[in-house]
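Translate sequence into structure tokens.
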Amino acid sequence: MPADAARRYAPRMNPITNPAVSLFAALALLGGCASVSHRIEQPVEVPEPVPQMTEDSHYEATIERGPEYIDALRAEPAPQRPLVIEGKSERGDQRELASKGFVRIGNGRYATDDAQALREALDLGSRVGADQVWLYHDYPSDDGESTPTRLLAAYYVRFKLLFGATFRNLTAKERESLQLEGGVQIGSVVGGTPASQANLMSGDYVVAVNGMAVADRKQFQEFLSAAAGKAVTLKVIRNQQRADRVVRLGAMPVAIKDP
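Result follows.
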């Protein structure tokens, strides 16, 4: 399909940028007496991971997760119409998008590359809730024709950060004051992330994940990575009070490997 025809359906794209985020910058050290009170928050309901379903024969899911699961991990609600972008290198584009938190949820494959196929691809993008649709035109390599013969639409959704906050090991003085053998202290919290939505704040101490004691920063990161995409319960100390915080973790960054 000629390039001017494609432009009638695909709006021009500005460079992809991550939305501005707010940071809680101040670190509030918690000291004093080791006796603490307890407060328990109610857990949240987590949707079970189920396969994506669609009646469109052109659609091929690339992650085995259904719409409820994908919606729970979204950084933002699905747009009414996805942003449409003419891709250059399928693998290169995917690598760059992954670094920005975008996950490829599926593909639309069409035997022709014409206005009808493009309309169907964009309509499918809206139905699967894609944030962005990247288009690729497959040219035949044997006869040297300049007209594309097939269309690939790659559908992307931007997921939340895995956690969304910095954290550090406790000092010896903090462990002694709180009578703890380990744990981490939360530093900066990024707005709109799982940590922020669970009401974690700079200065909070995290001492356990799902009932398992946190030894140090390394182990806390391992706990988070192992539970990516799920809800975890953190035991938190704030102002000498203990509370459970249920955090719905985001997705792990997708590693793109060269063939």
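Note: Residues 3-13+48-158 form one domain.
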